[in-house]
Design brief:
- This protein has 135 residues and is mainly alpha-helical.
- It has one domain (2-134).
- The protein contains five helices and two strands; from the N terminus they run ααββααα.
- The chain has helices spanning 2-43, 50-54, 75-80, 93-97, 114-134, and strands at residues 55-60, 65-70.
- The protein has a two-stranded antiparallel sheet with strand order 1-2.
- α1 runs antiparallel to α5.
- The model has no long low-confidence stretch (mean pLDDT 85).
Length: 135
């Protein structure tokens, strides 16, 4: 009988631990998402500053996801380059390939800022979660 009484308390404890873990994960996603946004703004090519100012972090998947974006029309040209100087990062072949046009005479070298920052944020999130699991 005491085992059954203790079972209710154990279920409540597990529920609380689950909620705490969920809150922890959401917090970590927010932290690394914001850090990724800051890094992308720092890495963005500078001219008048419009590109850096357009970079934004957005929470997705009810707090379990994050999106970094740059909202000026020339953002992908800066990220991937143009013409014969397009740099196609692994996993972005289809997206980047659309900027590989022309004869290469009017090409602009890629200046990646958004994808490297997002990848760094992802690696940081994995490290944070692994540290929590080891506790």
């Amino acid at each position: 009988m005491s085992f059954i009484r203790g079972l209710g308390a154990s279920k409540a404890s597990l529920r609380l631990q689950g909620k705490n873990l969920e809150a922890f994960v959401k917090t970590q996603v927010e932290i690394v998402g914001r850090k990724g946004e800051l890094e992308a703004k720092q890495k963005a090519p500078k001219d008048l500053g419009g590109l850096g100012q357009s970079i934004a972090y957005e929470s997705t998947k009810n707090g379990f996801g994050a999106r970094l974006s740059a909202n000026v029309f020339y953002a992908p040209y800066q990220e991937f380059g143009t013409g014969g100087k397009v740099d196609i990062p692994q996993g972005f072949e289809k997206l980047a390939a659309q900027f590989k046009t022309g004869d290469g005479k009017m090409s602009m070298k890629a200046q990646p800022y958004l994808i490297p920052s997002a990848k760094n944020a992802y690696k940081d999130l994995l490290l944070r979660l692994k540290r929590r699991i080891k506790k």
